[in-house]
Amino acid sequence: MVFKREICSLFPREYERWESNGIKWVVQDLPPEDDEKALEIFRSDFCDDEVLCSTSGISRNPKSFQGILDFWRHCITQRTSLACYAEENGVRTLVAVNVCVPAQKVEEDNSVEIVGEEWQNVYHSLEYIETKCNPFEFLNLDVLLGAYGLLVKREYRGAKLGARLLNAREPLSNVLGIKATSTVFTGISSQKLATRCGFITIAEASLSEMAEAGLKYPKDDQRTIKLMVKKYK
């Protein structure tokens, strides 16, 4: 059965609220009315910032670029993504998003086609690293909270919002009845952040290794992606 969140009167839930430097911040569920704003944040920066997407050239190929946007759109409509808002002078702005989606050990339905050669290359990379260590088997669980991108708007970077979003996965998982999260972290800074937030590495692969496996990356590129997990009590 495909995982589906039951939406109740408590949606969207707030997971953290704080104030600093005159700004009021809140981390909560991403509500439907902000789906397009979230996609715009990813449309603007993600494919040029993230290692696999930028190296594969997704943003230079309209078919792949549209394909990954359609994939994100499908993910966020499941209503399990996290959003961070900043409120200044009475104006509330969406400033960061973590596209989260429950994943099951046995998936019965993948209703989103992975379209575009470059996007397929990235997606197959995520599949490849899981062949080295299956997170479901490692954690002995049938359902995990997965994620397909965390992005903070450029002008709000440095406020440690990434850590706030990663930590908010725990109360979100509690609401969903999920006991762990699993993500492929592709950049050094995101890998270090995940470690500080309590994630452990269960598999890693260099772009060079993935090139040898048939994926389209430079054969001398030693940058490494890591499959990392965190189990909740």
UniProtKB/TrEMBL annotation:
It comes from the Eukaryota. One of its GO terms (molecular function) is N-acetyltransferase activity. This is (apollo) hypothetical protein. It comes from Parnassius apollo (Apollo butterfly). The lineage of its organism: Eukaryota, Metazoa, Ecdysozoa, Arthropoda, Hexapoda.
